[in-house]
User: Which sequence fits this backbone?
C-alpha cells in the first residue's frame, strides 16, 4: 500500500494507473478514525475498481466554530493498518496546507439538497464538504468515488455537485454498516457513555417503527411525532426526524416511491445520524 503525504508523491504513485486507461481508479474519502463502516466502502470499491485509493483528511472547513474539530478522533497508525488489511492500494494523507494553500480563494456553495436538515443545523457544513471533495477529485482524478449512505444528505449533495460541475466521476452510495443491535457505525459512537450506548439502538428501531406505520397507512405526521415522543421519553433530543424525497431532500407528506426517513438525534453531547428507505427492504 502506497502512502502519499505530498502532491508529488501522490502524482508519482498515481501515474502508472492514470496511464492505464482501462483500469478503474476508485477513491474513498474519509476523515480517519476508521471502523467497519469505512472498510465496507473499501470492500465495495475493490469490487468495482482495479485500484482503490483512500484519503484521510479531517477537513476544518466542514466544522462550525462550536463543533468538535479539536476532539475529532485521530489514529493514523491504526487507520493505515486497517486500510492495508482491507486491500487498499494507496492512501492520500494531505495536510491542511495541501488542501488550502495560501491564497486559496474558491469555495463550492451547494444549494438544493444541501438546504435544510444537516445544512440548517450546521451552517456552512456542506460548503466545506463539497469544496474538499471537489479538491480531492481534482488531486486524485478517480473514475469512481464511494460514499456511505449513513450520511445520506451528504451523498445527495456530492451527487448534485458532480452533476452540476460536470465532474468526470461516478458517485456510488454504499449501504449503512450497523452494529448487531442496529446502531449505525460512526466514529462518534465512542463518545457515548455505556448507558447512552445501551439506548442508542432505539434510533434505528424508531425509524423502523415509523416506516412500518407509514407503510401501513398512518399519516407521516402522526407516525413521526409518535416516534419523536418515544425518543424524548427515553432521553434523546431529536434535531429533526423527517420523511424526505431521497434525492432532493425536500420534505414529503404522503407515502410514494423514492422516500427516505432522515434523522439526527442528540444523546448527551453526541449527535447521531441515521436514515432508512421507506420502501420495504
Ligand atoms: P467520515 O470519515 O465520517 O467522513 O466518513 C467517511 C465515509 O464513510 C463517508 O462516506 C461516510 O458516509 C462513510 N461511513 C461512515 N460510517 C458509515 C457506516 N456506518 N456505514 C457506511 N458508510 C459509512
Assistant:
Amino acid at each position: 500500500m502506497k502512502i502519499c503525504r505530498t502532491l508529488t508523491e501522490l502524482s508519482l504513485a498515481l501515474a502508472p494507473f492514470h496511464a492505464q486507461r482501462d483500469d478503474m481508479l476508485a477513491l474513498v474519502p474519509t476523515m480517519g478514525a476508521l471502523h467497519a463502516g469505512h472498510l465496507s466502502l473499501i470492500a465495495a470499491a475493490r469490487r468495482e475498481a482495479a485500484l482503490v485509493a483512500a484519503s484521510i483528511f479531517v477537513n476544518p472547513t466542514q466544522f462550525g466554530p462550536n463543533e468538535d474539530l479539536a476532539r475529532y478522533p485521530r489514529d493514523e497508525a491504526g487507520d493505515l493498518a486497517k486500510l492495508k488489511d482491507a486491500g487498499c492500494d494507496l492512501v492520500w494523507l494531505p495536510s491542511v496546507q495541501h488542501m488550502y494553500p495560501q491564497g486559496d480563494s474558491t469555495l463550492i456553495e451547494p444549494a438544493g439538497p444541501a438546504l435544510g436538515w444537516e445544512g440548517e443545523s450546521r451552517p456552512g457544513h456542506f460548503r466545506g464538504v463539497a469544496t474538499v471533495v471537489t479538491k480531492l477529485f481534482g488531486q486524485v482524478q478517480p473514475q469512481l468515488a464511494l460514499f456511505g449512505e449513513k450520511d445520506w444528505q451528504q451523498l445527495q449533495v456530492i451527487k448534485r455537485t458532480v452533476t452540476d460541475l460536470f465532474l468526470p466521476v461516478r458517485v456510488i452510495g454504499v449501504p449503512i454498516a450497523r452494529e448487531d443491535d442496529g446502531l449505525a457505525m460512526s466514529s462518534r459512537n465512542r463518545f457515548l457513555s455505556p448507558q447512552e450506548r445501551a439506548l442508542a439502538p432505539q434510533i434505528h428501531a424508531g425509524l423502523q417503527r415509523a416506516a412500518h406505520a407509514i407503510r401501513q397507512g398512518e399519516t407521516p405526521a402522526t407516525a413521526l411525532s409518535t416516534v419523536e415522543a418515544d425518543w424524548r421519553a427515553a432521553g434523546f433530543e431529536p434535531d429533526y426526524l423527517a420523511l424526505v424525497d431521497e434525492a432532493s431532500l425536500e420534505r414529503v407528506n404522503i407515502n410514494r416511491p423514492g422516500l427516505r426517513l432522515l434523522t439526527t438525534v442528540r444523546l448527551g453531547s453526541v449527535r447521531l445520524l441515521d436514515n432508512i428507505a421507506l420502501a420495504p427492504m
Remarks:
- The CA atoms of residues 238 and 265 lie 4 Å apart.
